[in-house]
What does this fold into?
Amino acid sequence: MGGVERSIWIVHYDASSCNGCDIEVLACLTPVYDAERFGCIVTGDPKQADLLLVTGGVNNRNVEVLKSIYGQMPEPRAVVAIGACAYSGGVFSECYNVCGGVATAIPVDVYVPGCAAKPESILDGVLRAAAILKERRVALRSAPRNAKKGSTEEGARR
Amino acid sequence: MTNLLLLLIGVPTAFGLVALLLKRYEIRSVVVVMAALIQAGLAVAFAASVGGSLPWQSGPAPAFLDYIILGLELTIAAAIAIIGARKRRLIPLVLALVQAALAIAGEKWTGGIESERLFVADQISLLLVVLVGLVGGLILFYSSGYMKTYTEEHPEIKDRRRVFACVMLVFLGAMYGLVVANDLRLMLLFWEMTTLASYLLIGYARTQEAQKSAFRALNLNLIGGISFSLAVILLAAKAGTVELDKLQALGKAGGASLAMVLAPAVFLALAGLVKSAQLPFTSWLLGAMVAPTPVSALLHSSTMVKAGVFLLLKLAPVLSGTMPGYLVAFVGAITFLGASFAAVSQRNAKRILALSTVSNLGLIVTCAGIGSYQLVWVAFFLILFHALAKALLFLGTGTVSVGTGSLDVEEMSGLVVSMPRVTLLMIVGISAMFIAPFGMLVSKWAAMEAFINLNSIVSPLMIVILAYGSAVTVLFWTKWLGLLVKIPDPTAPRGLLEAKVTKQEFIAEATLAILTIAACVTFPFVSAHVVEPYLLATYQQAFGLNRGNAFVTVLMVVMTVVVPGLLIFLTRKPAAFSPAYMSGRPQGPGLSFRGSKATEKRVETRNYYLTEFFEEGRILGAGSGIALLLIVIIIGTVLL
Amino acid sequence: MIFRTENLVAIGFVVLGPIIGGLIAGVDRILTARMQGRIGPPLLQPFYDLSKLFSKRIAPVNRLQVPFIVSHLIFVVLTGFLFFEGSDILLIIFVLTLAEVFLVLAAYSTGSPYAAIGAERELLLMTAYEPMIILTLVGLYQAAKSFNFYEILASTTPLILQLPGIYIGLLFILVMKLQKSPFDLATSHHAHQELVKGLTADMGGPVLGLVELAHWYESVYLYAIVFLFFSSSMLAACIGLVATFFFVILIDNVTARVKWQAALASAWIITLVAGAGNLVPFYLITRGH
It folds into this structure.
């Protein structure tokens, strides 16, 4: 059974978003968009998540939190950066405390454009990430088992 | 056989006196260990030699014996009176004088009576003999290691270990006498001996709190003793006998003869309620935890409180089906419920253990008070399993508290890392108290089925009480178990606190753990060969587990021990551990995270104690009120 | 050894239990979605989830967590096996308590703050529902004079008519047992941020998969107990089961989470009023002499 791309559990982190994109993320769960159609569930626990949705740019305070959450997610995992800020820091990029996009802290797999991003494109991004998750799972299967154990340290290092 | 029995009673007493004379600790501890072994051997030998044809009966008492008993009785009363006078306590002084007066005045009725059988040992007596021998012996053995550490750790307490060893041994001797005596005058003598001994042991530390608790135990048990004396006099006056087996026979005969012995039986039952620390008399046992651990272990497991339920169980054939019997059962049921509720709000390990003892005794009293053959079966096994598991838990708690320096269960958090070996034994003990396949729970389940089959008006009420009580039992034990298995830092070195554990302590605890598991595995055998014959002889009806259920329980015991053990053994040590989730904060070693301004914050979790629901004072207060009312009604029904 | 039908059913439970339990969970999710005006996931979604969970790689939090969870699953399955094998269901339900204790200990062992709160709350819920479970089984016994699943099943009178109060009490605690709102205080399938995942907060990947699997097994025999109340006619049984199932999901969707005080107090009061209030008179009427 190919569960990975049909069961996408999401942990959503608001780095330093203006909340515009967050509202759109939540809109994805409403009856109009119903992300659960695709097996998406928002979970609060990175240890149970497959996908990290980040909104907003990374600042000096939350960079370590973002790394830590990413580090606690079990393999295979993927990251979706939502909106302009998550790409580059957006309108906040010049702020004294902003480091830039999500990629300055952790590797990003899918960028969803928009300010704020539309629910349709967020869903599209999630499904693209699901395809990446599937590839990773295949790669992980062929990799030796104990080589990937310390996912925490690895995540924190990047 | 009588000689062996006299040896059984005499040897611990004699060793006790020898221990009193030995000044050097090393020699004394060798003597105490020897005494522990010898008396355990004697107990088993006695049980084995008379076990073939029960009940075993001795010959009549020698003619002069009742004068000796009277003399000793008055000596004890005088000793208590002197203690009361010297410590300026009026109540024990008065109670001791009342007891002495009753003993002398009672001569008018009891004086001329010669008992036909001085000693009678049935299966219940032998169960107690074996438990006192094995558990008591192990506790003595443990105390030889523990009291050394205790004395070193408490320099402010005067070293009176000689008296301690002496009283412990005499206590065991008195217990043997108590459970085989058939002549109630003799039983009363041993009964009062245990009262005095427990006073001396509880007050060992001589602090103000210890004194207070010791006197509370003394006062309440003296009241029980007076009730016992009244019962003996009433029995002699009404039925012209002082023998327990005759009392049982008259009670079972029903009709007019039952009416004749009901009042004495009720007063004996009241004495039993006090000794087994039922509400409203619970406070003496709760206070007794100020004593050194071996004392608590001894009082709670095989001696003292078990003497109370032992007597009630002996009276079960008399009380069964009578109004006072049902009322006694309700006192037990309220105690069971109240004590298990109160245990939820406790943080002190010894207090949790004490309340759990009271609660289990309550259940045994309920079984004995209703006294159907199925419930007597249950009571028998509750006594057996409780004695083993509770002794193990008290000894374990004592060892742990020396290591952690506290009796607070919260301080036992993470014990599986710091004291892995002792914790394993504690887990066995706690599991035995409430987890499915082990004895206590099987007994509770059997009690439930027995109540259902009773077809009495009280059945549904008892079932409801048992349902609530056992739910709460799961709560307070699992909370504790959870603390023990908490691992704050999986990479921390193990066994750091185990250095202080003496060999004697560990051996005693390990033996008890093995005995506990062995009892759980072999109990269908014990049921078939020990308990069922007793039930057949006493009730002409036998009850045992049916084969399927016995198989299921034994299978479960084996699985519960083997499955987690094997799994823990088989899982390889992982290459890395993932830290616990802390809302994404970067984490340090163990349970800590980096807070603002780069400060290291430790995470500490504490258990729920639910004081707004299970406040001890309120629950036990209300329970005591109801129980007291019931006792007044009980006395009223027999006197009117 | 004689092979009885009971043994076949018991083995069938071990093999097919996850399939039935998974389908129950699938229907549950679709129904929930429809009640909220959504389409919801496909019927097989729980199986996709489980297969995904087992494909994840995660380091354990400590050495005890995994053995405890595996023990939890083993004892849940064993409970069901013995249940359908015709053992004494009162004894069996105590074995289920043991299984639950393993789950709680697994959460405790992590030392994590969220798991600790979850463990405490799960224990509270156990305390809350346990009396009612016992009264349910005693009530069934009193009606059918047996603790054997098949003998109760064979009873000709509809038990629901004799034990309406007990059925109401059971329905109440079924919501707790199935971790549904308003009693999903220990853990839940929704993202409750203040609790994270509570009891299962520090479980991920295969470990969580085992917990989920155990939950499916458990739901099968919980509904089997509900089935017993209607077992006199097949039609009534189907309607009763579907209605119960629907009711639990409806309650899940229309209520907000309560505090532990309310959970404990309400469960105990319902147990006393509906459960004991039904059992005590029923026992007195039907007791033999």
About this structure: The radius of gyration of chain B is 25 Å. The first strand of chain B starts at residue 56 and ends at 57. Chain B has two domains: 1-317, 320-573+603-640. Chain B touches chain C through 68 residues (CB under 8 Å).
